[in-house]
């Protein structure tokens, strides 16, 4: 019910102490004015029932005048967007006024009700949500984490630091985001995979689709990266979800192999039943029995190959069975009196040759699987980088808009001070304005995907197991070619030196 006057402004003295009671960065700044500019990026709109001319500075050098101007100056500096609301008395009945908080709406003055509705409507529709630097919107849970960090700092006798609080919040949010992404990946892999799969590639394609969805969840909904101060709140190895999803993928690969072995051992047992009965019954231990055995074995192999859903371990199961029967075949061969010694020697040599070819086939199959895994790893890595680049670009744009807004406010404030005749005060803003311009240039030149590739290739070399390290070398080389370096050999040598220093 009081009017907006000098005394009302004096009661807002806490505004002048904001830079003393809270810091934006963990490292103390030697320039308070420079540091105070950071507050513009996350302070809310200043909404109060005041008249704009109440913030006009009073001319004069007197200490009282300077003190009076301090609150006005701080409000103008920290709150670029201001809104005025004027309220009538809630009621003209003094008795009711003593218990105004207990009054029902119909007991309040009609004009006051309308003014209150206008005020609430503005807050709900026009007031921006609480954000942190970079345009990060603070949720209810996130706000609770920030408050806890502030209170802990105050209780410990320190000055609350926004950067430290944001790091704490980001670590909490990122951990939750990683878990949500990992849970989505595991859930979708379980739903979409029908084990055993026909091929490893089928599993890897499902993995790629599920991983992309999981990364989208992490990147778009929850992840926090900070482009300023040159640090990422993303944990290495390279991406925080990578280790979890790789382990989960490997687990599915093992499950797929085990399911394939179990399935084909059952199929093999059924298909080989006739062959095994003939062996145990002595059917092949007669003159000409070796030829009969080869005919029965070939028929069994053909029937086995016609089984649907071959599976990743179908060939291995078959080769293991045939290897286990090598002694039986040798016994049948030696017992076959219809064959000469030369025929037996030739047949034995053919059996050894077939066994060697089967071993080579298994080796080629294993090498092909490793190649598929490596290619999938590379595709996944490139997809991660592409999504990270998109996020970095969006954050850079948000940060640039934020910095441009801060710069425009400072320039406007400087112009107002000059218009009001406060030349000295206007000149003090020059350093802040220059710093903001420098920050904008730095943001525009923020590192891009090439920098990430350069860093990531070396990390891959260091952290990937065995043959996957070649992927890191490949990315390093592709980066060299992409950058068009004049003398790539020294970079390749540097990469191989790093490669050789890591135990495979």
Outline the structure in words.
It contains 20 helices and 4 strands. With 504 residues, it is mainly α. The strands form 2 sheets. Strands 1-2 form a two-stranded parallel ribbon. A two-stranded antiparallel sheet has the order 3-4. The radius of gyration is 37 Å and the shape is elongated. The chain starts with 5 loop residues before the first helix and ends with a helix.
Summarize this, please?
The chain is mainly α.
Task: From the structure above, extract its key features.
504 residues; mainly alpha; Signaling Protein - Interferon-induced Guanylate-binding Protein 1, Chain A, domain 1; two-stranded antiparallel sheet; 20 helices; elongated; GTP-binding; hydrolase
| Strand order, sheet with most strands | 1-2
The number of strands is: 4
The appropriate CATH architecture of the largest domain is Up-down Bundle
Rough outline = elongated
Beta fraction of the residues?
Answer: under 5%
The SS-based structural class is mainly alpha
CATH class designation of the largest domain: Mainly Alpha
Report the C-alpha radius of gyration, rounded: 37 Å
On the 0 to 100 scale, the average pLDDT is 75
Pfam families: GBP (PF02263), GBP_C (PF02841)
Organism: Bos mutus grunniens
Family: Belongs to the TRAFAC class dynamin-like GTPase superfamily. GB1/RHD3 GTPase family.
Keywords: Coiled coil, GTP-binding, Hydrolase, Immunity, Innate immunity, Nucleotide-binding
């Amino acid at each position: 019910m009081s009017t907006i006057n000098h005394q009302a402004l004096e009661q807002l003295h806490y505004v002048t102490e904001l830079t003393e009671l809270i810091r934006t960065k963990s490292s103390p700044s030697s320039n308070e004015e420079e540091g105070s500019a950071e507050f513009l990026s996350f302070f809310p709109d200043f909404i109060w029932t005041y008249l704009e001319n109440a913030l006009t500075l009073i001319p004069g050098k007197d200490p009282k005048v300077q003190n009076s101007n301090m609150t006005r100056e701080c409000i103008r500096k920290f709150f670029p967007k201001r809104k005025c609301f004027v309220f009538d008395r809630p009621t003209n009945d003094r008795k009711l006024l003593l218990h105004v908080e207990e009054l029902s709406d119909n007991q309040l003055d009609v004009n006051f009700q309308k003014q209150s509705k206008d005020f609430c409507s503005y807050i709900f529709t026009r007031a921006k949500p609480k954000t942190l630097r970079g345009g990060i919107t603070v949720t209810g849970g996130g706000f609770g984490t920030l408050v806890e960090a502030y209170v802990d700092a105050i209780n410990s006798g320190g000055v609350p630091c926004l950067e430290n609080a944001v790091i704490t919040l980001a670590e909490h949010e990122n951990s939750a985001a990683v878990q949500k992404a990992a849970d989505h990946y595991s859930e979708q892999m379980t739903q979409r995979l029908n084990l055993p799969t026909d091929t490893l590639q089928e599993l890897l394609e499902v993995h790629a689709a599920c991983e992309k969805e999981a990364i989208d969840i992490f990147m778009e909904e929850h992840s926090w990266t900070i482009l300023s101060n040159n640090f990422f709140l993303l944990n290495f190895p390279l991406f925080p979800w990578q280790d979890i999803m790789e382990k989960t993928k490997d687990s599915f690969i093992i499950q797929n192999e085990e399911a394939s072995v179990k399935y084909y051992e059952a199929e093999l047992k059924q298909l080989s039943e006739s062959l095994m009965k003939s062996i145990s019954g002595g059917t092949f231990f007669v003159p000409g029995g070796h030829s009969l055995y080869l005919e029965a074995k070939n028929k069994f192999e053909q029937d086995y190959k016609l089984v649907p859903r071959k599976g990743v371990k179908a060939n291995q199961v078959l080769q293991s069975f045939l290897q286990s029967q090598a002694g039986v075949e040798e016994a049948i061969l030696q017992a076959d009196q219809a064959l000469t010694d030369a025929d037996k020697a030739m047949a034995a040599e053919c059996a050894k040759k077939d066994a060697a070819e089967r071993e080579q086939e298994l080796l080629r199959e294993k090498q092909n699987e490793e190649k598929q895994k490596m290619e999938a790893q590379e595709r996944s890595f490139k997809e991660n980088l592409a999504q990270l680049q998109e996020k970095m670009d969006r954050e850079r744009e948000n940060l640039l808009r934020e910095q441009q807004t801060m710069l425009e406010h400072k320039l406007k404030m400087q112009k107002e001070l000059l218009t009001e005749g406060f030349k000295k005060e206007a000149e003090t803003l020059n350093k802040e304005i220059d710093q903001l311009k420098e920050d904008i240039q730095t943001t525009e030149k923020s590192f891009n995907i090439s920098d990430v590739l350069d860093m990531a290739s070396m990390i891959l070399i260091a952290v990937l197991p065995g043959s996957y390290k070649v992927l890191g070398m490949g990315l390093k080389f592709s980066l060299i070619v992409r950058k068009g370096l004049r003398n790539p050999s020294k970079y390749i040598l540097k990469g191989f030196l790093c490669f050789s220093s890591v135990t495979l």
